[in-house]
Design goal:
Blueprint (H helix, E strand, L loop, with lengths): L5 E7 L4 H10 L6 E8 L5 H9 L3 E3 L8 H14 L4 E4 L8 H4 L6 E5 L11 H7 L4 E8 L9 E8 L6 H24 L3 E4 L2 E4 L2
Parallel strand pairs: 1-2, 1-4, 2-3, 4-5
Antiparallel strand pairs: 5-6, 6-7, 8-9
Helix pairs in contact: 1-6
Glycinamide ribonucleotide binds next to helix 1, strand 5 and helix 6.
Length: 205
């Protein structure tokens, strides 16, 4: 029996709470995946320090050391190949990735975003939802395509917006749903239960 676990790379730019939740999920005995690599574009990202503490290989790849986005992403690809990465998980990675990377890993790059896409893409999604007067927001895990937060949606979770919500209180409630659904999607991916049909993703039961 082949017992190789799927290998994921987590890309992050900051706090890394989604990374921590994914890590925790990956440590259960029945996990079909493990985190093989954490990469950041920010040297001081808290998530990098945490990954070091967990004993996970980390890499800080500084964008300004490269002459172009293509050169930067080629370096990322080199790392992914070295660590035999099967799935790339963007978790608060605040850079837009280009076809160089996307075409190398078709349907193998996923992202989490703190709104019910296609509503409120881009930065400060929680603030956008509050300013729009929405009654509901949430989070989305989706495949990454060339647009901004525009790829096929895999899973969403709703969060009610209360009248007295601040950006912070809403973000906290959304975050706990992010932590729940991101690991769930990664498990489904490695159980071969995600099927893309056009722009729709079917979850096989
Ligand atoms: C999360 O809320 C994630 O959804 C968001 O950044 C935060 C990272 O938190 N990502 C985006 O807005 C991407 N468009 P974390 O570093 O604690 O996981």
């Amino acid at each position: 029996m082949n017992t190789r676990k799927g290998k994921i790379a987590v890309l992050l730019s900051g706090r890394g709470s989604n990374f921590e939740a994914i890590y925790k999920n990956s440590t259960s005995a029945d996990s079909p995946y493990e985190i093989a690599l954490v990469v950041s574009d920010k040297r001081k990202a808290k998530g990098l320090t945490t990954a070091d503490e967990f004993g996970i290989p980390t890499n800080f790849v500084r964008p300004r050391d490269f002459s172009s986005k293509t050169a930067y992403e080629k370096k990322l690809i080199e790392l992914f190949e070295k660590f035999k990465i099967d799935l790339i998980c963007l978790a608060g990675f605040m850079r837009i990735i280009s076809p160089t990377l996307i075409n190398k890993y078709p349907a193998r790059i996923i992202n989490i975003h703190p709104s019910l896409l296609p509503l409120f893409p881009g930065l400060e999604a929680q603030r956008q939802a509050l300013e729009a007067g929405a009654e509901v927001s949430g989070c989305t895990v989706h495949f990454v395509d060339e647009g901004v937060d525009s790829g096929p949606i895999i899973m969403q979770a709703r969060v009610r917006i209360e009248k007295d919500d601040s950006e912070e209180s809403l973000s906290t409630r959304i975050l706990s749903e992010e932590h729940r659904i991101y690991s769930e999607v990664i498990r489904l991916f490695f159980q071969n239960k995600l099927k893309i049909e056009g722009r729709r993703v079917k979850i096989l039961t």
